[in-house]
Design a protein that fits this description.
With 203 residues, the protein is α/β, with parallel strands linked by helices. The protein is built from eight helices and eight strands, in the order E-H-E-H-E-H-E-E-H-H-E-H-E-E-H-H. The longest helix is centred in the C-terminal third of the chain and has 16 residues, at 173-188. The protein is globular and about 50 Å long.
Length: 203
């Protein structure tokens, strides 16, 4: 099926495989939605190195972490120390960031990029792709086996994973899905606590 945008998590994938996955999907621009576009363990995915690699393959690098990152600077956007994706999605700067992303997507084949391999472990899916889908766009999550999972299928996995689809106290598909998003975000979103530095990878 055709997609308006894609998403991918770099994880520990080798450069060559990463570029291959992008080429297979027809991607020619990466929108980096990491709040801090740096990886100590996988330096080839730090912004400067990644931009240079992409340029060698005629792909653009777009820094989007300031507006669309998963680690807000505003303390009001945390709930009990956990980044509140729903509150973040309502922010003017976030919405403007989506507008800029869509302007880029009108000119290029854009893929959102963050660190986590699994879309349901990452704000690029639970926050950014969700917001894009609510605007009527179709998003495909590029998985490391080379398949592209439609965001609607990812949402079905989210419902099954959370058990929200079986919650008799939450009626209606929209309500069940919102509850599933909220539960998953609480489990995986960035925590602004003393242990935050132990997070596996910077979002």
């Amino acid at each position: 099926m055709p997609f308006d945008l894609f998403s991918i998590g770099h994880s520990n994938i080798p450069n060559e495989r990463f570029i291959g996955l992008l080429r297979h999907a027809g991607v020619n621009a990466i929108a980096d939605v990491r709040s801090t576009p740096f990886s100590r363990r996988f330096p080839w995915f730090s912004a400067k190195s990644l931009a240079a690699t992409l340029a060698q393959h005629d792909m653009a690098y777009i820094a989007c972490g300031e507006a669309l990152g998963g680690r807000p600077r505003d303390a009001a956007l945390y709930r009990d120390g956990v980044a509140d994706y729903e509150a973040m999605a309502r922010q003017t700067d976030f919405q403007k960031g989506l507008d800029r992303l869509l302007a880029d997507a009108a000119r290029s084949r854009v893929c959102l990029m963050c660190a986590e391999r699994e879309p349901l472990d990452c704000h690029r899916c639970l926050l950014v792709a969700r917001s894009l889908a609510e605007r009527g766009l179709t998003i495909g999550h590029i998985l490391h086996d080379g398949t592209v999972e439609p965001h609607a299928a990812t949402e079905q996995r989210l419902l099954a994973l959370s058990g929200a689809s079986d919650d008799l106290f939450v009626t209606g598909q929209d309500e069940r899905l919102a509850a599933a998003y909220r539960s998953r975000a609480r489990a995986v979103a960035y925590r602004a606590t003393a242990g935050a530095k132990s997070v596996v990878e910077i979002k």
